[in-house]
Design goal:
Layout: H1 2-14, H2 19-26, H3 30-37, H4 45-54, E1 83-85, E2 90-94, E3 104-111, E4 129-135, E5 138-142, E6 145-149, E7 154-157, E8 163-167, E9 173-180
Antiparallel strand pairs: 1-2, 2-3, 3-9, 4-7, 4-9, 5-6, 5-8
Helix pairs in contact: 2-3, 2-4
Length: 181
């Protein structure tokens, strides 16, 4: 999580935003953002989405690595970076490098039993999003409605509308998410 924390700080500075300015734009307290940037706390996935949305960037930019291989981008399973969010009981795993330059940002979201992306529905960055449940049972919430998604169920949605993901099953759940910018 330390690399993600450093990335948030660097992106904020690149955008010439103050800590207070980014915190207000993301809807979190300046002290919470300071603790996140200094790796003192592990933010929820929803909080990471809020921060990157306030920066007008996709969440996957937090995991971006230089694309040295060119086209195609291969990501062997053993080489992918995984970031665990303790508050969400979730692991995010980007599935491509050089994501900030791409129109699609694919990643895996793994939720432990009872894991939830955020305490409340949250909004993400602009664009569109597609998700398919690869394993487990997920409760997807958007626009005050809930949908139970099981193996191979899919959803296509507007990530700028408040939404949330929760593992309602007894085992781990894995969702393939693809965001567009």
């Amino acid at each position: 999580m330390q690399k993600v924390s450093e990335r948030i700080r660097n992106l904020r500075l690149e955008k010439k935003m103050t800590l207070r300015g980014l915190a207000l734009a993301a809807g979190i307290s300046p002290s919470a953002l300071s603790q996140i940037e200094s790796s003192q706390v592990s933010p929820s996935v929803a909080t990471l989405e809020k921060i990157t949305a306030a920066l007008h960037l996709p969440i996957t930019v937090l995991f971006d690595e230089p694309d040295e291989a060119g086209d195609p981008v291969l990501m062997p399973a053993q080489d992918r970076r995984r970031v665990y969010s303790a508050p969400s009981h979730a692991t995010l795993e980007p599935l491509a490098r050089g994501l900030s330059k791409k129109k699609m940002q694919p990643f895996l979201l793994r939720l432990d039993p009872g894991g939830e992306v955020g305490d409340y529905p949250y909004s993400g960055s602009e664009g569109e999003e597609f998700a398919i449940v690869l394993e487990g049972e997920i409760l997807f919430e958007q626009s005050n409605r809930t949908y139970t998604l099981k193996d191979l169920d899919a959803v296509y949605f507007d990530p700028t509308k408040p939404h949330n993901w929760k593992n309602t099953g007894t085992g781990p759940a894995t969702v393939l998410l693809v965001s567009s910018s």
